[in-house]
Amino acid sequence: MVVIVGAGISGLSLAWFLKEKNIPFKIIESESKAGGCIETVQSGNYLMEMGPNSLLLNEEQIDMLSKFGLKESLIKAEEVNKNRFIFKKGQYRKLPGSPPALLLNNFFSWKTKWAILREYRKKSKAASENESVADFFRRRFNNELVDYAVDPFVSGIYAGEPEQLLMRLTFSALAEAEKKHGSLIKGMIKEKKSTGRKSTYSFQKGLSELIHKLSEQIEIERDTRVLNIKKDQNGLILETSKGEIKAEKCIITIPSFSCADILQNGWPNTSEILRKVYYPPLCCVHNVYKRDKVQHPLDGFGGLNPRKEKQFASGSIWSSSIFPNRCDSDEVLITTFVGGSNAENKTKLSDKEILQEVHHELSKVYQISDKPVFQHLKRWNKAIPQYDEALAKVLAVIESLELDEIYICANWKGGVSVTDCISKAKKLADRLECNC
Ligand SMILES: Cc1cc2nc3c(=O)[nH]c(=O)nc-3n(C[C@H](O)[C@H](O)[C@H](O)COP(=O)(O)OP(=O)(O)OC[C@H]3O[C@@H](n4cnc5c(N)ncnc54)[C@H](O)[C@@H]3O)c2cc1C
């Protein structure tokens, strides 16, 4: 029997693939509801995402969701979502979406435009294995591109800092593209052709629909926390809050700090390294305003704030511009993120202070002339694992757990996005099928 620990998207999709292959499994979840980071809240007419807001999907991934039974409820983002805005010199400016547009637009200085042109022909040098994301882009381009393009995106996707995250772990495909094609831009153009175009999606009732659909098809042992894993001559034994479970193979999909707890007795050295993975805290704030009180057209996916601009929030998603069913048609719903790596202190403020600060900042940057009609705050004490040097140490030791039939299929290995989690689950299920 294969036992899966955790029923977030990694555990649930793995369970679905195992079921498809007729491999017997049990899936154990500590909470009464499945989903982990994926959580949609409906309050009156407001549909709000607490964790991930949308999925970036290509045709192959859409087919996969169809197999889960979700094709009908998939909704594609409005065209406007392709516009991405960055806060620069007191206002949001549209980030040019392609290398030619980068050169023609006045978002970047002439120096940076020249750096972009030069990159195409710049020879790739052997970089250190632990080159940071910032150093990589500084080496290929320059500081301005790091400060006004890389930094806000890294903070928007990972709640992280480009100086800390390792290029080879965070953007492995880009690091490989540079190696393979000699230029990042050349590589990006070629790879885009091979992986197919990706678009932004959600579901009619938000991303939780993905969880509900999978949960309907899979029996989950809820309210059961795995406390410890031990080994005997017959295999693995999972000690849970509801008794012992025997397993031939155990798949761990839970956060690294929880994994450290359950491996503490049997694998103390690995557990100690796992405990050092950094998950910054993050607050997710939803604000609803009457549309006629907001002067800014909110004609894009959202606005990101480079750290250099010293804003309170790291950025906002203009949720109702992307998916109009998020609020009434005479309103706008804005999802704002506060905190992340190096901004932990902001999350230590009270709920009231954070809500006030966010409203204050939004009203300035979007010229809003009235109070919000609705506000909501969700705190993530440990949000997203940082793919930094501490995590690199984990990855160096974690493979050896497979010798004891313990496998990792979690968002702290091989990618954090929801689609990464589903793809990794599919790959592991294929691998287990060969082993069974
Ligand atoms: C605020 C935020 C915004 C994000 N935005 C996006 C986005 O826009 N797009 C995107 O693609 N991704 C986004 N992500 C990332 C993505 O949501 C996560 O990486 C992904 O959902 C992780 O899923 P998982 O199943 O690997 O882990 P989790 O969701 O963490 O699930 C783990 C499960 O294990 C359970 N568990 C923990 N310990 C135990 C135990 N001891 N015993 C039993 N069960 C246990 C937990 O209760 C949980 O249900 C975001 C994440 C956050 C936090």
Can you walk through the features of this model?
The chain is of the alpha/beta class. It has 17 helices and 20 strands. The strands form 5 sheets. A 7-stranded mixed β-sheet has the order 8-7-16-17-18-15-19. 44% of the residues are buried. Flavin-adenine dinucleotide is lined by residues 5-11, 28-31, 36-38, 51-55, 225-226, 253-255, 258, 262, 282, 284, 380, 383-384, 410-411, 416-419, 421.
**Highest CATH level, the class of the largest domain:** Alpha Beta
Number of strands: 20
Total count of domains: 3
CATH level 3 topology of the largest domain: FAD/NAD(P)-binding domain
The proportion of strand residues reads: 15-25%
Which ligands are bound? Answer: flavin-adenine dinucleotide
CATH architecture of the largest domain: 3-Layer(bba) Sandwich
Could you name the key traits of this structure?
protoporphyrinogen ix oxidase, domain 3, five-stranded parallel β-sheet, Polyamine Oxidase, Chain A, domain 2, 436 residues, binds flavin-adenine dinucleotide, seven-stranded mixed β-sheet, FAD/NAD(P)-binding domain, alpha/beta, 3 domains
Give a short summary of the structure.
The protein has 436 residues and is of the alpha/beta class.
